[in-house]
Amino acid sequence: MSVVDQIKSVTVKAIKELYTVELTENNILVNATKPEFEGDYTVVLFAFVKQLKKSPDALGNELGNFLIENYNELFTSFNIIKGFLNLNIADNYWIGFLQQQHKNISYGVKEKNGDRVMVEYSSPNTNKPLHLGHLRNNFLGWSIAEILSTNGYDVVKTCIVNDRGIHICKSMIAWQMFADGATPQSTNTKGDHFVGDYYVKFNDEYKKQIEELIATGLIKEDAEKQAPIMKATQQMLLDWEAGKPNVIELWKNMNSWVYDGFNTTYKTIGSDFDKIYYESNTYLLGKTIVEKGLEKNVFFKKDDGSVWIDLTADGLDEKVVMRKDGTSVYITQDIGLAEQKQNEFNANQSIYVVGDEQNYHFKVLKLICEKLGLASADQIYHLSYGMVELPTGKMKSREGTVVDADDLVAEMINISQQKTEELGKVKDFTSDELHELYSTIGLGALKFFLLRVDPKKKMVFNPEESIDFHGFTGPFIQYTHARIKSILRKMGEVTSMKSGVENLLPLEKELIIQLEIFPTIIGEAAAEHDPSKLAIYIFNLAKIFNSFYSEHSIANAESEEKKYLRLQSAQLTANVIKKGMSLLGIKVPERM
Predict the structure, then answer these.
(1) Domains assigned to the chain
(2) Is 368 helix (H, G, I), strand (E, B) or coil?
């Protein structure tokens, strides 16, 4: 039980004993005491002064005296400032915590709670490689899955691959027109990049044909419809839906090239899935549900035969769920897939990691599922995140201005090599060790920079800034971990603390208090689906340790007892940094 939980528990008991009033721990608000006041934790009294018919000061004094008198192993003193009861926690409590946890490599991991959560992320299209936006998506989804798992949930990681549709046919048509039989193998090109190049070629040719048609006198709108390459693409989609063998064969071949490329990228960035769904298998889902919805009058049919739902009473608008030709739209497929996933895994929550441009779509999806009375409705949760831009601005895949994930990862590894070599501390590393180190630092910098920001916020990614060894970065934390491991190698890890330490110096205490809240931070990150809470916490922990270590020697401590205390603090700090960073998908080196 954390110290905050203990404070809540004894406060409830104290109020019952003093005033015969039954409260629950949820009624008690406990915060870290503000730096300008004396104390470690603060009980906010305003919530129940009226109920207890006491002034804040009177209540604070009575409550504080009771806690000191009855729980002196936990509290040493208190003070009251304007309705806030500030409590000082006994040094012995923190020392006991450190003795108990310093070697616990599972510190922060909660027992299974019996609830299952699905996390869907990545959602790539098979007409182009993964790009910078996909990286934020993958890192968010994977990290949330790990944080939830560590917080006691049974987690299923899923991905839906958009492997069909007009955009896929664009790459296929361009390949037929321009490839002359070339393959990734014959051109020595990574498969997803190879196919993505033809998506760009399609757009280039399409623009050219539009300009030629406009030159003949057509208006732009008509030219866009009549361009031969677009007509051929639309026919290919019809042929695919009809199962035309040569089209299906080309589609399978080109998708296989892309999947080979995706798998290489996923392996490099550390992304994985328990179940992958393919739109080519799911795009017909939902049609039966629409038919049932018509019978229940949830949907209505327009004169042209298309099926709609009217959500204007809910503050939205009318939404088509089936085209007049009987084909599905995205929302139809998502309704069907939501039900399929729920039937397969019976999850308590289904999290969709999708950019904020789809906020409206997911409002509609959840609302339609609720109106249909589907089992999946209550579980749908949209983890919306802001787009990532570069200092140069937005990216556009059809124009070939997107930063490919592979290129960015390679650039990050190169920058990490340059920065590490500038520090000049790796002369005794083998070439294999250096390769591993540069990869660990480069990927760590990339992941930390993308995860340190609240997911809801848009962000600008700056590669150079992300790899600063002295900034709010992954490499700063990695370096701190390596520094601690170097200390422990030189001095030896301790298994027990010599008795005799009774008092903690301010930085010793601050470090231990920061370590004690680690499980609470994991819980908050899980509840709010926000890895940035964990990233900020680990960074602050690393900063506090560096301040502590620059102020207090371990090797030349004032006593053997103090040396052991500080060694144990260093051990637990290293364990927490390693575990916390692993939940962000980031490795920490033993030396660097």
Answers:
(1) 3-89 (3.30.1360.70), 165-275 (no CATH), 448-583 (1.10.730.10)
(2) helix
